[in-house]
Amino acid sequence: MGRVTVFASAGCSHCARAKAFLDARGVPHAVIDLTTHPARLADQRALTGSSSVPQVLFNREVVGGADDLEALEAELGPDGFLERVREALAAPDPTTPRLALDATPPVDADGPVATPTPSRPPMPRHDDDDDDEPIVATLNGVRFGFVAMIRELRSIVRVGDSAPRGLMRVVQRRCFTGADLVTALLGKHPSDLGREAAAAFAQRLCDAQVVREVGGSNPGALKIRFRDDPRALYRLQPDNHPGWLNPWRLAWVPRADDALARDDPASLCAALRAEFTRLCDAHADAANPGAVRYDALRSTPDFERLRVRSCALRSARLDALGRTARLAFLINAYNLSVGLAIAAFGAPRTRAHRRTFFDDVRLCVGSYSYSLSEIEHGLLRGNARAPYGLFRPFAASDPRVRFATVRIPRDSGDSKDSSNDSSSAPRDGVEVDARIHFALNCGARSCPPVSSYTPTDVDEELEAAAEAFVEGSTFVDVDKRTVTTSAIFRWYARDFGRTDEEVLGRIRGWMPAGRGRSALEGMLADGRGGVRLAYAPYDWTTNASDSTSDYDATATRSEYSWLLGG
């Protein structure tokens, strides 16, 4: 029999709308997931001539996207539409291999992309039994696991707010000094520790990430040097901000993904994102197509296990990756992190929420942690400011600068420099791959759909993403000599070109052959000039259901809520 086929991507609201439309009318359909199988985009293009999703086919007849489905029903009427579907299903099964449903995952140079590990690791135990925890320290013959050590320190260290410091008069909450910690240890165990030995013990606590430095020269470093100093401030991990997506308290569980994280972290991120997509599908909001009940998802054991698997990224080595492998990894890591963060900490629904969300939530990779802003603007955009931002993500001395995917001049790391004429412009000499803007999904409905990127084919995959995004978001009005496109081209104008003409030229290069491209080429070539760029409103609405809680920066402490009262 025949078949209705939908080419779709994860996180695409229009894809969800098309599938919900068919479900509501009882139309059986097969889905080819381009997020899990990005190589199938070539099949979609060959069959439909389009790179945008969704694409619905009745056998080999191209219907189009969600709008086209609704338009077809409006043209034929509900009964006529269902009759068209019955005719398609009664036809012979399509024989073209481009519509095959049993395609294997894409293959890279080292073999197939990893799929979620069948044997799931055990859940970490959040009680006083240290059997499932690593021993972080031994004191007076007593072995302390992570939980027990936190509780021991809570009982002996005086935690409070710091006195105002510096020109900004910053008050740090729920902290203590290095000298206070050493004194507290000596007070509890005077016969076992001298001051030097107590300081060495405190260093072991820092290495185990039981204690975190407040501020410091490199806030992203996971390895810190403890100082027995009344001016050095520290916090217990449960009190520490920002929130970590893959915190150390999960990392004590044995992980089968460590080797893959070291050898091919991009594939691991793709596999984790595919598993997260499965969880989102399982918690779809039936009353709101395309929306996900993240609060319900967060409470499942599967989500906790997924975060445990993400701890393997602590074994990744960015310095061992070439440009393309690093580029693919960072894109996949960013898209994975956004989804995990919304599920773990809530949906950023306001401008203030979005600002703290992208600055505070962090992913631990190798020896450092990175905020979402640091991944996007620091590593992928060559340490450029975010739109309307005041500072660059990394200071000149920050060791994470060397992991950027583009070459950065030596003087471009000074986060205090605000001399550029555009707040979001990279420095002279920094060549940003502007196509990343069509691959990064920040959780908003106007963002590009999520796809997986591979080290071997990332350039081709980025080109396809650019073509698909421009095709679906750009409209040419010859009479008004106007090109209306996404606001991304305004916020990151200098990533695409130094003038409107250069930006329009980039847009033209990504437009599919057809009337729109021909019209734009004609306007650019007629010598009249005056082609105006206009920008469509950007929909910042997330795909979180109404029942999903709002993001709250202080809610990152809920990661350790089971400890806070201890």
Describe the protein.
By secondary structure, the chain is an alpha+beta fold. It folds into 4 domains: 4-103, Glutaredoxin; 130-246, Orthogonal Bundle (Arc Repressor Mutant, subunit A); 248-438, no CATH class; 458-535, no CATH class. It is 38% helix and 10% strand. It has 20 helices and 16 strands. It has helices at residues 13-24, 41-48, 66-90, 146-156, 178-188, 195-207, 248-251, 258-263, 265-282, 294-298, 301-310, 323-345, 351-360, 372-380, 458-473, 488-491, 493-496, 500-510, 515-525, 561-564; strands at residues 4-8, 30-33, 55-58, 61-64, 107-108, 111-112, 135-139, 142-145, 176-177, 211-213, 233-236, 362-365, 368-371, 475-477, 482-485, 532-535. The strands form 6 sheets. A 4-stranded mixed sheet has the order 2-1-3-4, with helices on both faces. It has a 3-stranded antiparallel sheet with strand order 9-11-10. The radius of gyration is 26 Å and the shape is globular. It starts with a strand and ends with a helix. Mean pLDDT is 82; it is low at 104-131 and 412-423.
